[in-house]
Model the fold of this input.
Amino acid sequence: MTVPGRRSSTFSRLLRHGFTDPSAAGRLLDAPELAAVRTDPVLLDALGAVADPDLALLGLVRLAEAQDADGRAALLTTLLAAKPLRDRLLGVLGASEALADHLARHPQDWQALVTYEAADLHPGLAEFEAGLAGAADPVALRVAYRRCLLSIAARDVCGTTDVAQTAAELADLATATLRAALRIASAAEPADAAQCRLAVIAMGKCGGHELNYVSDVDVIFVAEGVEGADEAKALQAATRLAAHLMRICSDTTVEGTIWPVDANLRPEGRNGPLVRTLSSHLAYYQRWAKTWEFQALLKARAVAGDAELGEAYISAITPLVWQAAERDNFVPDVQQMRRRVVDNIPAAEVHRELKLGPGGLRDVEFAVQLLQLVHGRSDAALRSPTTLDALQALAAAGYVGRADAAQLGDAYRFLRAMEHRIQLYRLRRTHLVPEDEADLRRLGRSLGLRTEPVAELNKAWRRHASVVRRLHEKLFYRPLLDAVAQLAPGEIRLSPAAAGERLVALGYADPAAALRHLEALASGVTRKAAIQRTLLPVLLGWFADSADPDAGLLGFRKVSDALGKTPWYLRLLRDEGAAAENLARVLSAGRLAPDLLLRAPEAVALLGDPEGLKPRGREALEQEVLAAVGRADDAETAVAVVRGVRRRELFRTAAADIIDSYGTEDNPVEEDHGALVDRVGDAVSDFTAATLGGALRAAVRAQWGDELPTRFAVIGMGRFGGHELAYGSDADVLFVHEPREGVDEQEAAKAAQAVIAEMRRLLQLPTADPPLLIDADLRPEGRSGPLVRTLGSYAAYYRRWSLVWESQALLRAEPVAGDRELGGRFIELIDPLRYPVEGLHEDDVREIRRLKARMESERMPRGADPTLHTKLGRGGLSDVEWTVQLLQMQHGWAEPGLRTTRTRRALAAAHAAGLLPTEEAQILDEAWVLATRVRNAVMLVRGRAGDTFPSDAREVAAVARYLGYPEGRAGEMIDDYRRVTRRARAVVEERFYGG
Done:
């Protein structure tokens, strides 16, 4: 009987070692077959190190049960004594249910994992042939094949071999298996074997020496009659042998199947004869073959049968493969194949497809093969049939950037490793990432992700798929490839006619207009056109990575037209590596940034300066603005310069935001979305403050010279005071003044009113620069109250008449322009109002809740979806901010950290003070950041402010791209927004409304 305390201890220990069902594991450990080892800590540690400890333990018990007494003792003794065996055996049992089944049926095969010699670490074709040599029938061949596969899997899961070596070993095992199958077929039909010479040509991954655990083995058969034999009869005999070979490998027996042998890559596919002579093959390829057939032949390798005939076949077809790029429509044919593959994936499976989906293995393989076929005709170093070797050769020869090749290679290895481990589990042919949590956990752990296996796996998979997708389009769709493919070496140029055929594949909605832009940019013999022809192929790939390639190309043409004659523009794009990609991202991400750039195209220089996209900071901007005002002849001229600075800073901020959100080669995507939001809010608030300061100085200087009759300060309110302004925000402010000594109060008030009116006029004059609207509606008595008050008037009002909503509004008050000492005294005046000693009275709390509820019911626009309205909707900005502000008013008097105008800082302070649990603080922060980013995205995409998602499909797609969603995943973005804000609303209900 198990003692309760011991059970609890064992249960905890099993949990710590990675078991997901400790109760079942405990029962398995108590099995009599494991009596000799159950208490040995070495076994538990070893089980805890494998992908699936539960699966490994079950497999070990089954293997022990299948042994006789002596065999069981030998197994368990060796298991504890020999670490290599322990790691290999348990590693396989924890990764493959199918190989555990094999070991249970063939309990002596575990001994294949005992030896640990140098040759055993990296076996080749000869070792696998020796392992299959004793198989005289299909059943025995399957058993021997599984035994060899067991050793490959053991080396794989233990890390003895990397993914490329494992794939090569699997291809070698497949070669040995084809040879053994042909031997068995020939022994069964000796008369047929005597009449013909039959060669087996491996294609696809087997030919490329990069096979999966479970994959169709693609082959082509070529045959000739022996000397003196009738050719027709010899072909019939060869066909029977080939068909028998296929059945030996493919048929299901008591030991299952090995893998299907697929001969559909032969001339005419399944409609053509299974076996042809060499001359028949050549006649077909020279006259009838399609582009895809030459692409497939790139991986052809003679593997079995008559070696001389096989090599003759390879020698004959190789020149044809490397001439394929000269065929008409070669590049469009390859692109069409790629699109057809993606289109044939069921919609429900696209996001789970490792091989064929966007950013999948096929993207890498197609891109590499296309580059090989284009450039390999003149560079024999590129002709490797193995994807990773070919990619390395392309990089070494300069056809692919080294950084691109390294990223693509890393992504390909990771995706292939995922594919291997998925197939290894049940030895089934699949390329779909599982959905079950347990399967994902085992998969993640098998790849070394142990802390949070599922989350880490999904993150790494998305990252690598994103890299593949981006680089695949850059390499695969470059129109430059078409020019290289159709023109002789040395005559490389962008052909507008050929480029037009690329545009639809790249996602252009109006290819005719896009082609006109290309022709305008790249035609001619000028130096400018030559540089454009170098730039455009890469730019087109970057435009294609956006939601609106047409807008990107149109914007590029407009900027080039405006700056084409300036010597630095094209030189900047050509020589400053990041500038061209930054410009492409900015021009294709929406309307706001391109509109700002086209008003002053010289701002494109910011995109090439490493420091150009960093915010300037309020102090530096104020100095620049005030110096410009001091040099101007009049107020209009001064504020025109000030507004120009604002426009430039708005472009700088928008460009940096876009580039950080999209990511570039030199600037990876910013993972911290809160930091993105904070940077935008700080930057927009800083240059807005500098703009107001410049307008104030200009207005004063024009009428009063150096000094206004009254001291005057501008107090930022709302998002302005909170350093949280968005691109389209007005400037919410209060105005306060204090007459100078000896100045009449009425005269001072009149001067203050006049300066405000002049500031508003100057900032809204019709010019090429966007206006800045000043909103003073948060002042005492709202629109009914005076526009500006003295500090004493504010004090009297707040002492006698102030309402709780006004105190709440003052939480975000901060001086932004004018007399700093006066602004500081205003803050001293209002601090007791916004942080009342002992917090709020219950009546005030009820009033705040009533106001919030009223706002939700009355201010929501008619017809708006409350689940998608970023400001007033469920879990949106208002919900989070009112919740935080209530905490500030209740506890700010006692918690200094809460005395901030910034929402996120106040939220963090509330958490630090123990007023909000960690999870709730994170939920509110995530919702606030997401809602703010959506508002920023809408402004960037549409060029005008909005509080909800756009209705236009292309605009929604652009918002999704800004938020980091891949192409075609806008629906997922909407679902995620609703999920995040729904959780935030639940916290608001509890914390703001009191449950």
